[in-house]
Input
Amino acid sequence: MGSAFSCCGSEKVEEGLTTITTPNNATWRIFTYKELHTATNGFSDDNKLGEGGFGSVYWGRTSDGLQIAVKKLKAMNSKAEMEFAVEVEVLGRVRHKNLLGLRGYCAGTDQRLIVYDYMPNLSLLSHLHGQYAGEVQLDWKRRMKIAIGSAEGILYLHHEVTPHIIHRDIKASNVLLDSDFEPLVADFGFAKLIPEGVSHMTTRVKGTLGYLAPEYAMWGKVSESCDVYSFGILLLEILTGRKPIEKLPGGVKRTITEWAEPLIVKGKFKELVDPKLRGDFDENQLKQAINVAVLCVQSEPEKRPNMKEVVNTLTGYDPRGKVMQTRIETLAYKEELLAFDQTTDDDDRDPGNQELGVFGHTKVQKMRAPYNQFGDQKMH
Ligand SMILES: Nc1ncnc2c1ncn2[C@@H]1O[C@H](COP(=O)(O)OP(=O)(O)OP(=O)(O)O)[C@@H](O)[C@H]1O
Output
């Protein structure tokens, strides 16, 4: 593992413990196996917070009282070794309020353990569809805070770290919530570091069904816009309370985009919103957020916004920003379009109206196009 850390920063020894300081001052330390064993009550099942594809996560408390979450990677085959190396390497580079940083690790035995701060409100998944779903702790304000914070974390990975980082597994179980419901994007085990000047890479597909961008799922083409796509699905999930893929009676699967499409096209925004909110939401914010989600989940990656545009639009800093307005169709114009279509049903228009006419029809077609192709997702 030495190599995984070598580029992360200098090493210094403090009170008998090794701490590693990254260039941006994030520090972590090496834990002993014994220390983590004691903290987690011998990795007892009672301490288990959850299980992912690569291992289990346990709650623990260190001798100095710090609450931690310890990810114990499954048997150390080369895949798990890689996952561990990538996660620690990536974590060493990042420090942002919306990214779950590294508290430490243990690599001294045949076990590979990663230590994080414990997030008392667990994952977004547990609030949307899991053990907290019945409690409805996610009101509208919190949902927007989670959406914006997660977007800011991803923005940082895409635009502020060098080399850029593509997360590749943005999903509700990888968004953890602190005591204030501030979201922290976690789980960098699949992340890819993208060298400067490289627009995309081809790679083996990792990630989770329902969140995968079509070009990535089908051709392994990975770029930042894969994360943008996954974020769009996550945003729809936050707004609607629906799972990315749901099983209908009879076993047929339906994606969240297939469900949302007809409602969005008809402008029935209120019917999209999670009924658990009992109508308590900000309608303008909802429309804006749905706009963003629609743009993010377009099947053509080059049409998707980047995370800066996403954050600007969600925060209202740039509600109809020039880039967004010229590059992509927003549903904010949908009502105008429908009104226009009702008064004009042929293409023989006044040249003065030409732009609006073409814009209108193109927009509806374009807007539908990605949805029509969402059928792709059934393949995932
Ligand atoms: N720092 C943490 N604080 C609190 N709970 C955590 C923490 N880290 C992980 N968990 C819990 O442990 C569960 C398992 O996490 P893990 O990252 O191993 O897998 P996953 O994201 O659910 O699945 P996959 O490995 O397939 O991506 C999470 O869903 C979450 O509920």
The chain has two domains: 10-117, 124-377. Residues 49-54, 57, 69, 71, 100, 116, 118-119, 122-123, 125-126, 169, 173-174, 176, 186-187 surround adenosine-5'-triphosphate (CB under 6 Å).
